[in-house]
């Protein structure tokens, strides 16, 4: 027999304890055996190893190789600027590695957050004396005392309980306080037993004594902590894409280097000249600015999301959210407001809303005893917080008091002179108050326990005998309200006259009516769910609450619209195989109710097996493992526990489900924006590469030096690229389905567009400007030019300037790849405009200041050179507009043909 299935004496004896508690010697022995009552951290990677990993991932290795090659080339041919390039690449590696390490370090704080939920001290019985001991010193067999407001420090079995109710939401996800007693339970699962209190929960009302049977990592709380710790880190889709992109870039750079080394050998170049030429090709094709641009672009997206109340903890999660195909959402505190509200009444034999009562003041007068009952029959306590008075205790009682005050229009304060407390057998509470009419007993509770005590009913303000047909109507009314997911309470009263106490107070009561209560949905949720539906995102409710309540809320918010949704309870989920679960998830409308933490993880795993990109929302400890396992975990910022926040990738600062939709919109734009600046950055590789090819193959002076390539990659290109990463979401973003997993950041279409189309046009402009200056200065093919010759310095400046002019045109081309520039807003992105201003400022500083001339090997050029380069940039725009018109016409023709 399990500890919750036996009597209290047997439960205590099974732990080799007694009602007087453990003696100090035995407590110390058990502490040494079972360990402290705290969450243990699993042995993870040491910080130094995590630090090293941030500098040794694949793209970092490519940059290390590029830097090494640059330093090697400098050692063979000093003075070519290769060492400057090497140091710049090392700086890029350092910035990215340190930033990523800091993000990783901040993300691994879930264990500390778990411990914050546990109380610091607890009242325990040691050697028949109450002692205040640290919660960490509790051991199995300890007898502890708990009362209203206490947090439960360990899993324990009640041996005494007086009107005890607990809030299990942070562990089980149940929204309503649960009554607890000390009687043996017939439940199979300890977590659902009425005589068990779980670590991490809190006592809402009443008091009790319990024997501890599980501490630390052996408690349900500890098991959830273990799941959170062992749920491995998952690479986001963006991280996978960066790895893939790194391999493509590495393969492309090395492939081109080897290819042109072979070509150089065939042309008879010396080995070392040819080898250094190949190094130049490789380095020119490694986009050093890619990782900083991606990182900074994601960081800027997180700032935009923060303004929309979505705080991103892990940068790659920005794009992951945009790729989400399924959202598994908790109910309590996420779709609902995590408070109780009276939603419906049954008075005078009819179902009423609160609005009906407010429209009909006669109801409040005729049924004043009903509203007095709701107002007075409770165990709440008043507290003052920042000068405001509020109620502490059961949220249902708080809701009833508020409802009664609103309906009565005044606060009645009749002194309480007696009470018959609530317990799990009685399922009701009765209080006696002194009123102007004498002593009156007010009673509320479950209809099945209140109805047998009544012999009269209040109808139209009159008291009539309670016949069988009336009893049936009340029972039918209860079923109707319960089917709506409401928690139903019955109210009754009796005028006692001078009798205040005795065994027969709860007799011959007047049945006053019923009230149905519900945790109300957030008002903005229905619209947010509709947006998800339009965007092709499936939303699945996963809750620890009752199935009826889950379905009722689902219908109210528009999550469920069909007649027969699939409802899977935790018991049924345990019996489903992985294949059966995946098939069940194909249902268009599915709700999971009464699920445990490990089961929520099963759901996430099944969805990921179906190749879905899964976002999971939650606020409790029970949600943390699934939050960490999901592609993106979303925690509530206001009502969420620290555990959930630390395990999540994103935190909703306002606990507003609608903020998820806004964040998804931002996330979807990130993928498109990264493609925009990827195209922009890769385009400049070709005008950087072609000068090297021309130098080696045509035996001409080198048109572009290494330091000038660096000026483009890590200087002039950086801010405009960031501007492309900060583009606002397209208005139509949330009207299309999520991008397929097969849709990659870099594909052949983008490579062809960047390298063979836009890049080729820029290379033509750069080489044309180079030769324009050379021929204008009298140079003829075959003439020797020294590296410091004024004409050569002007020609390389012209080449560099033409690239930058072309890139200014290119930033607008990449900004609007699908729409005509004349149909799209050009000046709405201030960062792009600042970037262009910076580009112009940098090239002027590089070309027209002594410092720029000395560092970058340049010389001032005349205005005619800029006028020569400008038509090339305008030609790029004209050709791009022609391409858009042709492709747009072809697409329109295809649509017209399909419609015919």
TrEMBL record:
Keywords: ATP-binding, Cell membrane, Membrane, Nucleotide-binding, Translocase, Transmembrane, Transmembrane helix. GO terms for cellular component: plasma membrane. The keyword Translocase applies. InterPro entries: ATPase_P-typ_cation-transptr_C, ATPase_P-typ_cation-transptr_N, ATPase_P-typ_P_site, ATPase_P-type_domA, Cation_transp_ATPase_P-type, P_typ_ATPase, P_typ_ATPase_HD_dom. One of its GO terms (molecular function) is ATP binding. The chain crosses the membrane at residues 55-73, 85-102, 248-269, 275-299, 754-772, 792-812, 832-851, 857-879. GO terms for biological process: proton transmembrane transport. The keyword Membrane applies. It is a multi-pass membrane protein. Residues 2-75 form the Cation-transporting P-type ATPase N-terminal domain. It holds the Pfam family Cation_ATPase_C. It is found in: Cell membrane. It comes from the Bacteria. This is ATPase. The lineage of its organism: Bacteria, Pseudomonadati, Pseudomonadota, Gammaproteobacteria, Methylococcales.
